Amino acid sequence: MISEYKKILKHLKKKLILLRKNKNRRNRTVSLIHSPTLKELSEKNERSQLSIKIIKYVDELLSEYGDAIWPEFFKNPLEPAQHTVDAANDSDWIGYGDISMSPYDTAWVAMIPNKVYKELKSSKDFSLAFPQCFIWLFDNQDDNGSWAGNGAGSIAPGLAGLLALCFFRSHSGEYFETKLNDLGLNIEQFTIIFEKATKFLQNTLNEWNIDDLDMTGFELIIPYQLSVLARLEKPVVFNFPEKQRLLRENEKKLSLISPEAILTLAKNRQPTTLTHSIEAFCEKIDFSLIQNEGFQAINGSYGSSPAATASVLLHAPKWDNKAFEFLKKIISQCPSYAKSHGLVPTLSDIGIFETTWVMHSIGDLCLDIRANKNVNFEEQSIIKLFSKSHTFIKYLSALNKIQGGTLRWASWDNRIPADVDDSVVSNWLIRQFDPFSTIDLDVITKTFYNGKYFKSFPSEKTFSVSCNVHTVNLLVLEYQRVQSKNKMITILTVDKNGDTKKVTLEEVIPTVIKFIVSQRKKNGIWLDKWNKSPAYTTFKANNLLLSLQAYPNLRAKSGFITNKALRDYCRKTVDWALNTQHEDGSWGEPSSTGPGNLEETSYAIRLLKTAAKNWCDDKTIRTALHAGKKYLIKYLDESMTDPGYFHTKQPFLWINKQLYTAPRIIKTSILTSLWED
Known about the structure:
This protein folds into four domains: 57-99 and 349-434, no CATH class; 103-341, Glycosyltransferase, CATH 1.50.10.160; 440-519, no CATH class; 522-677, no CATH class. Helices cover 57% and strands 1% of the residues. The protein contains 28 helices and two strands. The chain has helices at residues 2-21, 25-33, 38-69, 78-83, 103-110, 115-120, 131-139, 155-172, 176-182, 187-206, 218-230, 243-256, 259-268, 306-315, 321-332, 351-371, 380-402, 420-433, 441-448, 465-483, 505-518, 534-547, 552-557, 563-579, 598-614, 619-641, 645-648, 663-674, and strands at 490-494, 500-504. It has a two-stranded antiparallel sheet. It is globular. One of its GO terms (molecular function) is terpene synthase activity. InterPro entries: Terpene_synthase-like, Terpenoid_cyclase/PrenylTrfase.
């Protein structure tokens, strides 16, 4: 590059000499101005180097990820596709996925007594099946008494930790002090930990507005925990302003999901999402009826949840060796950098969810690369990227075929029902990158569409905006495919009475778009039940709406008479992004890198990249984009190469029974956001 700079400088000097000698300075000045400057050359080189780095990191991520799925993944993706539906009957394999550890689940595993005590109920024989989890509670309590930070999201983990302490005390009985000593602990330590946790929980519950929490099953799990604590031999009772409202929400939920209904599902061995939070029903149902192959996966887990699996070991009359071995395996795989958050993951595993979301971002990246006229498609790095990406599409195609057109988030556990999110995102990828593929929209609409919007799961009582955005993206892609052929796609739906009827895409798409529009908040954002960041759902929803400009009929039926009306509506969301950027260029909640974080910044950038194409002359958008990308680039190498970066230095934004992080998904969003169109 230095020699190139010298050539440019020499060229510029010659031009200056000619300017002085030539009377026709105007023409010569124009000639000089159009020569590339050092700044322009430097910026072009930086963009080129960044593009090379992005492709390199994506390639490494796909390679690492393929190995996690199957050692020979890139040679034969059909084999792991068959394996993930239990075809291999391999109980040693527990799935895959990079996800954070969980204090909530660790505390549940810490409650499990050993097999002898479970059978004999003798305090003398009491010990813990996983003492390391109990000791973790002592070694990792925050100074404020929590195990999971502050706020409403810390309540369920805190109550679980307190229950683990109380269970140990009650099970050990008169041998309490001796059993503590066996673990290298003493009563004084126990008392300090116990009192700090109790004080923290009381203060947090006093300030809690239950509307501020949308964790999975919280209205079942937290009332159960409070009830058990209140009925102990040494009761721990919490009274707080929202308690009665919480109990009413619990009663309402139980009226919709009765214990009898769960037992019926267990008897019929019918997969249900309730298995994922079965710990909330410990004292309401006979857990011996849950111990069957309809509920328990071949690897021993229940609902792909360590907490749910632990609850079966705790409350089923018969010791569950398969469940014990499952927990033993996942604890042995806990990475050292993640132990500060627990010894077991909040989900195990997240294979298909992680695969589809990683490929969702990489799919967007590939589309951007494909649309870029300056890309050399004969470069080996580009060829490798598209080749590896195509292997993942083959994998998802095989999964879809084997599973009948709908997918579940767990990589192999066929006890988890299919969900609309993984189903439509995988189908979107297949349709985008495999023109000869066939997809079945009927099975998706019949399973998940309720006439107004798409449910995440057939039995879901609440909704997800992001799920509906993903679904409409697929439907619009199908609409685009047949539009040039003047065809009309009809799809099958099922009404409230169970009757099947045909509807057109031109009916369904505007209906769901109107639902999405109705969910926007006054400040221009959308919120969701799967990720707490407003930027996550907002960028997806706004980008979808702006894409409707290419389809006047759909746009008009969705309530936007002109493209200008649509852009005016979307501009409020763009302004929200511009007004919420931090001074360092980041967006979102605080992290170790400053007032914002990398994940939310990548989402905001992806929103503004689309906005920049619609408001081409808006300098504020370009300035915000430049600052945001500069922030991401500053931490790019560290975030891509440090395995513990997102476990220890960034906030957890994904929602389950506890907040969690999924590093590979975040990495691909960052890399996609940085690509120059």
